[in-house]
Prior knowledge:
By secondary structure, this protein is mainly α. 67% of the residues lie in helices and 0% in strands. The longest helix has 22 residues.
Amino acid sequence: MKNIKFLLLGVFFAIVLSKTQAISWYRFYEMFKFQSFHMYGIIGGAVVISAIIMQLFKTGKIKDINGSKITPKPKKKGTIRTLVGGTFFGLGWGISGACAAPIFVILGFKLVPALILLVGALLGAFIYGLLSKKLPH
């Protein structure tokens, strides 16, 4: 019962993704062809909300499940790894027509395409795990 709020937050997130059509391959297609502002608006809204939540983490207003302050670790800055990672992420996004976040939401709507996406995402994560020591970090 302690974690019910996280389950409810996940359900809420899934509803938001489906109602905003953020799970639609066609919306991604429109975005990549610069034909619609729809997905850019969703992504921009997510960036703003994430910035607000990050500030709440930093000030200690949001705590972890044990009540401890969450301290984000500073990341190393690097152009090469950002370009390589962004390129692979963007290619996967463009080819599959889906972002990684809503795979489980898509699973609730379209079983076979979502299973293909899930297998592809897990395969990509596995390959990254094999190559991670050789990649620039």
